[in-house]
Amino acid sequence: MMTNNSSKYTGAVYTPSYIVNNILNFVGYNDSILNKHIIDNSCGEGAFLIEIVKRYVIKYFSINKDPKELKVQLETYIHGIDYNEESVSNCKYNLDNYCKQYGLKNIDWDINSGNTLDINNYDGTMDFVVGNPPYVRVHNLETFYKKVKGFSFAQNGMTDLYIVFFEIGFNMLNKTGKMGLITPSSFLRSKAGTNLRKAISQSKNLIKVIDIGHFQPFNALTYTMITIFDKSIRSDKIEYFTFDENTLSPIKIEDLYYDQVFINKKMYFSSSDDLNFLRNIENYYLLTSR
């Protein structure tokens, strides 16, 4: 994780490998991945993309031995964006460094330096969107403020940049695409998360939630959560997981209904018994405050 002051303005953090692997596993980037488009639109130096390329290369060589065709596929199906030019350069170097063991050289990676807020040429094309979006409060966004506030998910409250990346990710997905992000969990109940929650309640394609809880994968005082979306699914249930800090892996708790999770237009994740108790308390306060 970046610990210098620039992280305040860029939101750049390093994503641990166990988080990367959990997200890729949960979106299903394991077996049927060849000829499938995947993007990390805040890729940094390539924490996600390095593991993605590793999985792609291993899968490819399990059924095909032609390195020239693999080069073409890596150039075609692996995508990345980052605002920082140096990070993009380092990302490409890291990917090249991994691929050279297979004799792969001069790969023209589709890893672009640019502002993801301005890029829409990937819209509707991605089979997978994964990543760790930047966490930056809107008042620290300087020249990006107007661009951020132009997004639907940024219309309420003092928003954080990561909330906009949900909207960008949804736009990038094709009709059967899947998205997995690790973000702060503040959107569940904050005013800033109002439109994001509304979109989730309407689409019902949030299929898995992994609550990281008190465990801190980053050097930041914020609670984080992994959310998994599947655009091809409209479900009444969400699989709810907590996170085991000893094994660094999710633990399935139970399936929760959307009607349980949404209480007075906010979202809560806990056991069914706890959610029922909370709903009763919320309803009591609503009645007595009238």
Question: Taking all residues together, what is the mean pLDDT?
Answer: 90
How is the biggest beta sheet arranged? 9 strands, mixed
The overall strand count is 11
Strand content: 15-25%
Structural class given helices, strands, pairing?
A: alpha/beta
Written overview of the protein:
The protein is an alpha/beta fold. Helices cover 36% and strands 23% of the residues. It is built from 10 helices and 11 strands. The protein has helices at residues 7-10, 17-27, 47-61, 67-77, 85-99, 145-149, 161-172, 194-203, 258-261, 272-288; strands at 38-40, 78-82, 110-113, 126-131, 173-184, 206-213, 224-230, 237-244, 249-257, 262-263, 266-267. α5 (85-99) links the parallel β2 (78-82) and β3 (110-113). The longest helix has 17 residues, at 272-288. It starts with 6 loop residues before the first helix and ends with a helix. Mean pLDDT is 90; it is low at 1-11.
List keywords for this structure.
10 helices, nine-stranded mixed beta sheet, alpha/beta, disordered N terminus
Can you lay out the helices and strands and say which pair or pack?
Blueprint (H helix, E strand, L loop, with lengths): L6 H4 L6 H11 L10 E3 L6 H15 L5 H11 E5 L2 H15 L10 E4 L12 E6 L13 H5 L11 H12 E12 L9 H10 L2 E8 L10 E7 L6 E8 L4 E9 H4 E2 L2 E2 L4 H17 L2
Parallel strand pairs: 1-2, 1-4, 2-3, 4-5, 6-8
Antiparallel strand pairs: 5-7, 6-7, 8-9, 10-11
Helix pairs in contact: 2-3, 3-5
Describe what is shown at a glance.
The chain is 36% helix and 23% strand. By secondary structure, it is α/β, with parallel strands linked by helices. Helix 2 crosses helix 3 (47-61) and helix 3 packs parallel to helix 5 (85-99).
